[in-house]
Specification:
alpha+beta, binds 6-diazenyl-5-OXO-L-norleucine
């Protein structure tokens, strides 16, 4: 940890000084209020050590990072049948694109673009009695963190301005790949996206993707080794939408971004690291987050490649 600590502190002060060329997301009105200057980093290792700098303890809207959690629960409950409903191919298109759904007959390219995450929510709807409560309980259990919660204001704000996601869901339903009521599925999706966590909490909740022997406090495995490998593989190829190649090229780790400005990156076998900086590049990924992680894997020589 000593080694990581010094490197993180050095890179943090370097990247803090860099001109932030990104823009805070405002298509979800509530997100526009976030202070652009927030900047936090936290690492958690498989040896249960942790270290953070800056605003690492401040909760923020994790947005699409939550898609890893919904995918995890759906994969656990549905098993391999899940892939009949959603594919595992990079889309090469923006996260909210409608384009490929027509030619792909309503089967989203992967579970991390909005269309795929919405189908995952529909799958969860068939398994869970009280989807919002049960999903939150699942997150609390795997992280051993009872403070996790949705931000109702953010969920409502997204619902009020969610024209694209509403269109996507109706379009997929026209192909028969949404089984439940469109409004119910979207309400669940918007809540999942509104989950709030700090960098510290995020780097802890995803330890199950770093450690083959990870079990929860109650001794339960979250995923099988093969399932965890597969989720890491989808993160590497699809976690940054049409910038997934760039993230693999510059950082070289499985990862996932959210329009709240967070990025989590996983080193399977070593650590989970989270960066939060709200200004996004034109592809919707945190500008400073990517820069930080590029420098981090370079200095620690810990890309998976
Ligand atoms: O559905 C949306 O547009 C948002 N709730 C989530 C999008 C997102 O975080 C994309 N990430 N970079």
């Amino acid at each position: 940890m000593e080694n990581y600590k010094n490197i993180i502190e050095d890179i943090y002060s370097d990247v803090k000084k860099v001109d932030d060329i990104g823009k805070v997301a405002n298509y979800i009105p509530e997100l526009a209020f976030i202070k652009a200057a927030n900047f936090g980093v936290h690492i958690s290792t498989i040896n249960k050590e942790g270290f953070g700098v800056g605003n690492f303890d401040k909760k923020f809207s994790i947005q699409s990072i939550s898609k890893i959690l919904s995918l995890t629960l759906a994969y656990k409950l549905e098993g391999e049948k899940l892939w009949e409903r959603v594919d595992v191919e990079p889309s090469g298109n923006p996260f909210n694109s409608l384009l490929q759904l027509e030619s792909d007959l309503g089967k989203p390219r992967n579970p991390f673009i909005n269309s795929g995450a919405i189908v995952v929510c529909d799958v969860l709807f068939n398994h869970l009695k009280n989807p919002k409560v049960d999903f939150l309980n699942f997150c609390k259990e795997i992280s051993n963190n009872a403070t996790l919660n949705y931000n109702e204001k953010v969920a409502l704000s997204e619902k009020a301005a969610g024209f694209r996601n509403i269109a996507l869901t109706n379009f997929i339903k026209s192909f028969g790949n949404i089984k439940n009521n469109v409004d119910d599925v979207l309400d669940f999706y918007f809540h999942i996206c509104s989950l709030e966590m700090s960098c510290k909490e995020l780097s802890e909740i995803f330890l199950y993707l770093t450690d083959d022997n990870f079990t929860t406090k109650n001794g339960n495995r979250v995923l099988t080794m093969s399932q965890a490998k597969r989720i890491n593989a989808i993160m590497l190829t699809c976690g940054f939408y049409d910038e997934s190649g760039e993230f693999a090229f510059r950082v070289g780790l499985p990862g996932k971004s959210g329009v709240g400005g967070g990025i989590v990156a996983i080193h399977p076998d070593k650590y989970c690291i989270t960066v939060w900086s709200p200004k996004l590049n034109e592809k919707g990924n945190s500008y400073k987050g990517m820069l930080f992680l590029e420098k981090f894997t370079t200095k620690t020589a810990s890309s998976i490649f």
